[in-house]
Write a structure and sequence with these properties.
Layout (H helix, E strand, L loop, with lengths): L3 E4 L6 E4 L8 H14 L1 E4 L6 H9 L4 E2 L15 E5 L19 E10 L7 E5 H6 L3 H7 L3 E6 L4 E9 L1 E3 L6 E3 L6 E4 L4 H14 L6 E4 L6 E5 L3 E5 L7 E9 L24 H12 L4
Parallel strand pairs: 2-3
Antiparallel strand pairs: 1-2, 3-14, 4-16, 5-16, 6-14, 6-16, 7-13, 7-15, 8-9, 8-12, 10-11
């Protein structure tokens, strides 16, 4: 692949020029996959791509799926999710996409169709770097626990999944801190008070500047990010319209770096049981593990 790769921060991110994503070979796709594993988020400015071409490009990386909860208002293509807004909306919390599913997204391919000249940047965080920078005692604790995620921000609190707090990236083999403020509700093996304290710390920790990159958009830019090793956040500071169209590659299998070392902390039968306790109990019952 004859192109230029410019690294954007010490933590993650690269901008790639000199390639037309509408005319990529199989070898190009393999090189893009390798660059994505290395840099975690890639930006291709100045692309001219139709919806069909975007879908065709995304399908080269795996099975595509529209957004499971949020529906398009203008785009009718079933594989494209469009978000047109004058504010950042629900994307202005740090998150890894759809972690409330047992098999979340592998990656996304986003087309910035329209954006203001200033504002509306997006930030990404390197979750492997965030894990590596933890102290050894916190690493040891996190590798023995799991977390409950739900789709409450999408109005679907009954949609839940349990994932390890530390997962292994399936290609690099690196350990990744896998909790986020948007979808993660509680630590399964801790009571609510303990869980709240640890999640508050971890979800803030991953946003430290040394783990992040911030990208200023231009119309026509295509971005790809590895959903298995990053979180992202839209800076909700813009005036004017911002239109993105995204295809999502599905089929992730979340594997923990180790097995849980403790049993779930359940409060079934207590009069003061919390919503998150009820969620956990209902989830375990639905999976036949309680």
């Amino acid at each position: 692949m004859n192109c230029e790769v410019k690294k954007l921060s010490m933590a993650l991110g690269a901008e790639i020029t000199g390639i037309d994503l509408c005319k990529v070979s199989d070898n190009d796709i393999e090189e893009i996959k390798s660059l994505l594993t290395e840099h975690m988020v890639l930006f291709f400015p100045g692309q001219r791509i139709t919806q069909d071409e975007q879908v065709e490009f995304g399908a080269k990386f795996g099975e595509l799926e529209g957004h499971p909860n949020l529906k398009n208002k203008t785009v009718t293509h079933p594989k494209i999710f469009e978000l047109a807004a004058s504010t950042g909306g629900i994307a202005d919390e740090w998150h890894t996409d759809i972690t409330y599913q047992d098999s979340p997204a592998i990656m996304s391919v986003l087309h910035m169709v329209k954006c203001p000249e200033l504002g509306g940047d997006t930030m990404w965080s390197n979750l492997n770097a965030a894990y590596d920078a933890l102290s050894d005692p916190i690493k040891d604790l996190c590798e023995g626990i799991t977390a409950l995620h739900d789709a409450r921000p999408h109005g679907k609190p009954e949609k839940t999944a349990i994932h390890p707090v530390v997962r292994l990236h399936p290609i690099s083999g690196k350990k990744v801190l896998y909790v986020n403020e948007h979808f993660t509700r509680r630590i399964v093996e801790m009571n609510i008070e303990e869980s709240d304290m640890l999640l508050a710390y971890l979800t803030k920790w991953v946003t430290r500047p040394q783990f992040t990159v911030r990208y200023q958009w231009t119309p026509g830019t295509i971005a790809m990010w590895d959903n298995r090793s990053t979180q992202h956040y839209v800076v909700n500071d813009f005036v004017g319209e911002r239109i993105i169209q995204r295809v999502t590659i599905m089929g992730d299998e979340v594997l923990g770096s180790s097995n849980p070392r403790w049993k779930p902390a359940l409060r079934e039968g207590f009069s003061a049981i919390t919503t998150h306790d009820k969620q956990l109990i209902n989830h375990l019952k639905s999976k036949g593990t309680l």
